[in-house]
Input
Amino acid sequence: MRREDFLTEPVKHIKINGKLTVDQLVQQFKNAGSFGAGRLATACDIYERMLRDKECTIFLSLAGAVVPAGLRMLIADITRKRLIDVIVSTGANLVHDTIEALGGHHYKGHSAVDDWLLYKYHIYRIYDVFVPEEDFSRLDYKVAEMYEEIAAERNGESLSSREFAWELGKRLNDPNSILRAAYEAKVPIFLPAVRDSEFGFIHWLHAVKENARSKLVLDAFKDVPEIVEICRDSPKNGMIVIGGGAPRNTVQSAALATKKGMDYAIVVTMDRPETGGLSGSTLSETVSWGKVKSKADKVMVIADAMIVFPIIVASAIERLGENFDRAAYKIGKMLEGEI
Amino acid sequence: MKEKSDGEQQKFCGNCGNHAAYEYPNKIFCSMLFCKGKNPIVETLWCCEYWNPSSQECYCIKEALKNKTNK
Output
């Protein structure tokens, strides 16, 4: 490269003229093009392209406590509007979704609080969000009853985590619930670490209960052919990753197993790559595995997803218009009978 | 409800290792009773034969007693 090739586009300084819509602010970020602002603007562009691409299946990967923190309704809405096609989540995020569906709440709290006092009052803390223990108790009680009902219906046949999520969604009446929205919109939800959440401990309660009619059997390996087929059957695949962990790995592994690689990738994380952990691994690193194509439309935004993700969604909706009708790509032949 | 004897902690559901808040502070969810197929929602100031000591103290009993006194 020549010297002048490095000096082609000057930074345009952010100008705030009166009222700005979300996307107008994003355009200002794009004009500046630097640091987190530039990356966020790129993420908005990539999400718009994913949505406009009729051949792309969009995977949303969720890790970190974004549901208790306030993204529940946003995720339920984009699920219903089919602005994503597949959700892969920690069990915990859907546990918190279920807590609210059963009438519980998450409360604005503070990180600088006496945690021993909270313990004595039976209040749990998720950074600066508080959850009363009774909401978990109600969850345990009600969901254990659901497990028994599902197990009786299945009559010993195991479920994949995707089937499990839909069975729960079928039994929740809250329209703002992610599980309910996914069940109604037939958006698959995979929970690769379902045991590592309250859903796992509820299973323990359910399994040791005397006089239980039947026991729920969840087969984690059943998820693998389902998600691999969704990825394989789609001409193109894109992922939006919030956090990382097992959900990100599950999505990327489907792209690896099918030798397809993601065509689009947005990763929003605060984690670092130096530990070798997946949550902080760069998209360049994923290219080495073939999980993301080298020429993929991709960006990593190092930021708090609570700020960034609503901006990405709001910006995309503003660009596409409220009436944008995304012809949802037909996912996975294996799920055809159920969808 | 079992009576307190000298040098012995008075036994309540609210200081049992199986308790979780249900309607704080008056009612608790008992995982032991749930597993036994019995009604798991019991009074904080109740107690049964499955009692075992809680590893850390909480305010359930203190606040349930306060509520009872105020009634």
In short: Chain A has one domain: 3-103+159-195+216-335. The longest strand of chain A covers residues 292-302. Residues 3-103+159-195+216-335 of chain A form a domain with the Deoxyhypusine Synthase fold (CATH 3.40.910.10). Chain A touches chain B at residues 119-122, 132-134, 136-138, 140-141, 144, 205, 208-212 (CB under 8 Å).
